[in-house]
Every structure is written in C-alpha cells, then in structure tokens.
Amino acid sequence: MLKTKKDLTRYSQISYHLMMLPGMFFLILFSYVPMVGIIMAFQDFVPSKGLWGSNFVGLKHFIYMVQLPDIVKVIRNTLIISIGKILLGTFMAIAFSILLNEIRLKFFKKTVQTIVYLPHFLSWVVLAAVVMNMFNLDGPINQFIASIGIPKINFLGNNKTFQPLLISTDVWKEFGYNSIVYLAAITTIDPGLHEAAAIDGASWWKRVWHVTLPGMLPIITLMAAMSLTGILSAGFDQVYNLYSPIVYETGDTLDTYVYRIGLVGRQYSFGSAVGLCRSLVGTILLLTSNWLAKELTDRKIF
Amino acid sequence: MVENKSVKSKIRVAVIYLIVLLLGLSCFLPLWNVVAISFSKSAAVSANRVNFWPVDFTLAAYKKILDDAQFWRSFVISVIRVVIALALNLILVVPMAYPLTKNSKEFKGRNIYMNLLIFAMLFSGGMIPSYILVKNLGLINSIWALILPGALPIFDVILLMNFFLGNPKSLEEAAIIDGAGPFQILLKILVPCSKSCLATISLFSIVGSWNDFYSGLIYIQKPVNYPIMTYIQSLSVDIQEMLRSGQTSQSLANITELSNRNLNAAKIVVAVIPLLMIYPFLQKYLVTGIVVGSVKE
After folding, report:
1. A105 chain-B contacts, CB cut-off 8 A
2. Which residue of chain A has the CA closest to B283?
3. Is residue B42 part of a domain?
4. Which CATH number does the domain housing residue B134 bear?
5. Domain for residue B79, yes or no?
6. Which stretches within chain A are classed as H helix?
7. pLDDT (tens digit, 9 = 90+) per residue, B116-153?
8. Does residue B40 belong to any structural domain of this protein?
9. Which one, A79, A201, B119, B125, has the greatest CB density within 10 A?
10. Does the structure show a pLDDT above 80 at B293?
C-alpha cells in the first residue's frame, strides 16, 4: 500500500491534534472553566443556586471593596513585602555570587553551595517551624540579643518587626538558589579583562565595579524585568505559615486576605472580585515585564 | 609596596572566606536546630535549653512517630500523590511539546493552541472560582483534588518545546524519510534526546508535589486525608499561637502541647528525608533547569 504525500500530511495533522488533546482537556477544565467562574464576582453567588441561578448585582462587590479601609492596608503590605524581597533578594544573590566566585578551595565551595541551595527546596511549612524555633522569645536569636544586653524582641508577634522578618527570611531561603544564575553569568566574563584591569592597578573593588558587574548587567536586567511579575504576590505560603491575628495589621497580604475573607469566610463573590482585580493587575505586570525583558535584553519569558 | 599589596589581598581573601562561611552557617544552623530539638528530651526543649546540639540525647520522638498512624497515612498519601502527579505531568506535557515545535503551516491550529496556553499563564480565574470548580466536580477531600488542578504545568510545556527546538532538524527529517510518523519521532528520537530536560521537569514536579500544602489546605477538609505538609502545618498551629502570643517560658512549660515540640521536630525531619534523598539529583540538574528556564528566542 503506497502512501501518498497528502495522506502522510493528513496523518501527521491528526496525530498532532491527538497529541494536544489530553493536555487541552485539562487546560480548558482547570484554567478556562474557573475564568468563566469569575462571573460570580458580579453576582451574590450562592453555591446551592449555582452560577446560572444566582442574582446579578453588577459592580456591588467592587464598590464595596474600594470603600473598604482593609483593602488599602492589604495592598500596602503586599507591595512593601514583595518589593522588599525583590530588592534585598537581588542584592544578596548578586553579592553572594561575586563572593563565591572568589573562593578557590573546591571542597569548601561545594559544601557551601550544597547548604545554601537547600532552603529553596524546602516547603514554607517546614521553614516556618525553623523560623519559629529561631525567633521565638526564648530561642537562639533572642538568647543572643539578651546576652549583649538588648531587651528580647517578640519578632513574630510585633507589627514593627513582622515585615522585616518576612523579607529577611525569604531572602535567607532564596539567595543561594538565586545566585546560581548570577554565578553562571560571572563565569562567562573574559578573564583577560580582569588581568588587564589588575595590571593597570585596579583594586579588587574597582574590578568588581568596572568589570564583573557590567559583565553581569544583561542577566541582572533580565532578572529585574522578570521580578516585576511577582510584585503582587508577597508569598502566600510564607505569610500564611508565619502570621497571626496580632500581626494582620502589617502581615496581611492580598492572597491571605482573599483566602481568609473569601474562602474561609465564604464570601465567595467578594473574594472573587478582589481576586479578579489581582489577576488583572498581575496580567498587566506580566505583559510589561515580558515587554521590558524583550526590549532591554533579547530574551523573553514566553 | 608589592609585599604590602599581597598582605592586603590576603586579608581580603580571608574576609571573603569568612563572610561566605557565615552565610553558609546561617543556612545550616537554623535547619540543624530542628534536628537537635528532635533528638532532645522534651523537658530540655520546653525549657529552651536546646540550641545547636541535642540535650539529653534520646530517640523517644522517633520511636513515637513509628506508632503515629496519621503521620504515616499522610506520608503515604503524599507518596502516592507525587507518583501519580509525576506520571500525569509527563503524559500530558511530552506529547504537547512536540506539535508546538511545528510552525503554523506544518501544523494547522498550532497558534490557537499556543495562544490558549499563553493566555492561561497570563490570567487565572483565581482561588475562589477554582475552589468552586473542584467542589462541583465532587473532588473535595479526594487525592485527585491535589493532583488534577496542577496536572498540566504550562511552563513545562514551553520549556520542553524550546528544548525540542534545540535539537538539529536533520534528525527529524531523516526519520521522516525512513517512514516514521509523529508518534515514533517523538518517542524514539526526541524523548531519548531530551533526558536532561525531562529529568529537570520530573524533579521539580516531585519537589513541588511533596512540598505543596496549599492544595491540602483548600481542597481537603477531613484531616485524615491531609497530605504530609498540610498535616505538619496543622500540628504546629497550637504551638505557634503560644509562641506568638509571647508567653514566658514558665507559663509555656505548663502547657502539655509544648512537650510535643521535639515530636513535631522529628516529624519535620522525617518529612524532609525524601527531599534530601533526591537532593543530589536536584543539584545535578539545577543549572539545566535555570538555563533552559530563561529562553532565548
């Protein structure tokens, strides 16, 4: 039986569609059906009546949301926490990669890398327990603080210290892992540049500033553009596992707020309305960061 | 002058080693603290006498875990979930990545599929509509609620598609001349050439499923059906409340739950062991994952 070229193409086309089919089923069901569910943000949604039986109320929940003092607080907290994480996290990852690159003892370097990459792969459930043990009133950190004569601090139960705690523990978890990409960038810098600078009498600091950092600039720009995407997510897992009613004032973020009010409090429509606004701004941020990445470097996210 | 310089550079190197050592210790000691607590007598833990070395060394906490039916139930739920989720991820991602490497002439409809994928990455229905969907599908309290919503990791599809595109085209053309159809090309040529990318996707799927407590929190309402991380999260709630409220050690020591701190620490250690077992592989594919992660197009 001779297959004509046309038959072959037809066979290929059908095969391609068949290959897409299972994945598309899950995509439609778990990504697109919930998008239709957003209708509930414009209703007084009652689960027993369903999406088609609930009353439409227009923008009621959105108007309520804008008037709520909570929402300003929640957005402010989200932005402070996420921007703090991005700035301090980027700085730490870059600084660590530069320092690590100076280490010549192979065994020492490998050991340190193994240890600092580890927290990235641990769940916040586990790390929250670690943070609680370290920072509780009688924990090692407070024992140290007391030993140098400063009064103990209740890091987890104080609105002044909670945001710094979230930012620094997240930086602690991720700096090692995030440094990998910067370390890879450093190794692509021509060592001849360093030698030339050294012969010209440039100090180590000067070489870092004028050779290493400019060499890393493309990747720093790319990472900075990509980090824009995360500005609305202050990290649900981390905040949820560390916060408590005492620190809602400074610790409550958009994601935890939607979870608590919308899901636990069963205000499905209101929660969806807040979620919709968050998703929309998130989409704009993602598009912007993709555009920035493409303009500033020649890479893109998708 | 020259000597002065070399002394200076020696000091600099020493300072760098010191800083790197301190950063390494800052990651190691807090994790080690949990291990030390798990091997200590509960009285010593309650009195906050355990820092970085076990006090009154004992295996009591680990012996207790052996009889803890709920711990092992959650552990097994997570193991089953990891295995099914991994299989499902690969079964869905691998066949999708191949047709997407074609252009819209070779595969009519390619761009529609691609745009559907990208839009789903850009925008989502959010937490509550997803919860209502899972509820209406009758999946609440079922292990499938943990697996199915994340069955198609879109980012992995694009990752693998780009990896396939990196293979020389001549490989595929030769196979077509030999009479291979799309399924043969995918399974006999592309998959064997993409082991490192598939390993990366698999490892990240395993870590993600094992560490996920969020799905368990939202979709599982019966504590007996909790996956391991949600179970551990539910344990620490009582103690967290006490620690946060800032009570002194004296009043805390009276509360019985606190004597469980070493038991909980031991549970955390056991729950992390599976991750430590695959950690060497993770480190091997770490860089691959990141390098293919930021795609040049």
Report:
1. 17
2. A114
3. no
4. 1.10.3720.10
5. yes
6. 5-27, 33-37, 50-53, 60-67, 69-101, 106-117, 124-135, 140-147, 159-187, 191-199, 204-207, 213-227, 236-242, 248-251, 254-257, 268-296
7. 999 998 888 888 999 999 999 999 999 999 999 999 99
8. no
9. B125
10. no
